[in-house]
Each structure stands twice: as structure tokens, then as C-alpha cells.
Specification:
The chain has 119 residues and is mostly helical. The chain has five helices and three strands. Helices cover 66% and strands 8% of the residues.
Length: 119
């Protein structure tokens, strides 16, 4: 798995380099996988969060390594999302206060960016 730098946001070119893909492949995946939804900046530039990069890595693994079709990979991601939701409530209690604050900060920055983009 690719080593993801510790940043809040990644431009599409950075994600493409990390995954060794072309940018048009990522843009296509955005249309096929609803869970891959980077925010857009005021200049309409895609900004991927760490979670988006991890999702893209998983999509690449499902398609290129495990041989899933787009529909099959979509089903796998939907199933994984359901499992993650049930596990996340248990994991939230194990996060430190600092980790929760960092997570909240990231969510607020993403929300702020999306609100600015919709103006």
C-alpha cells in the first residue's frame, strides 16, 4: 500500500502520483463510486482528504489486484461501509481527545471548503 503523507488535503495530481494512475482515471472513479467525493476549492480544484485517498487505494486494489468489475467493487465498498459504520461507534470511544479534535477539525475544514465552493 502507498505511503500517504500526513496532510489534510491532496490535489488530484498528488493522488494520481501516489496511486500511480492518470488523473482521468480518478475523475472517472468519482462518477462510478459515490464514496469517492473530493471537495472542490474556489478555483474548482479537487481536494482529496486522507479518507478519499484511502478509498481510492481500496478501489485500485479491488479493480486491479483482485479483478473486480466496477459494479463488483461498488458492492464491496457498500458492504465495507456498512461494516465500518457498526465498528466506528466502538472505535470512537477508544480515540484520544486529541485524535477526536483533529478529526473534528478536518471535518470542519472540509465543510467550510464545501460551503465556500457553493457560494
Amino acid at each position: 500500500m502507498a505511503d500517504i503523507p500526513d496532510k489534510l488535503f491532496f490535489k488530484i495530481g498528488e493522488v494520481a502520483d501516489l496511486l500511480d494512475l492518470k488523473t482521468h482515471v480518478l475523475r472517472y472513479w468519482e462518477t462510478e463510486f459515490t464514496c469517492l467525493k473530493p471537495v472542490k476549492s474556489r478555483s474548482n480544484q479537487r481536494l482529496y482528504r486522507r479518507q478519499d485517498v484511502e478509498t481510492a487505494l481500496l478501489i485500485k486494489d479491488l479493480l486491479y489486484q483482485r479483478g473486480f468489475t466496477i459494479a463488483g467493487a461498488r458492492n464491496q465498498l457498500d458492504h465495507k461501509k456498512t461494516l465500518d459504520l457498526s465498528v466506528s461507534s466502538r472505535e470512537d470511544s477508544s480515540l484520544t481527545a486529541q485524535q477526536r479534535l483533529v478529526q473534528i477539525k478536518t471535518d470542519l475544514l472540509v465543510l467550510r471548503q464545501s460551503l465556500l465552493d457553493n457560494q
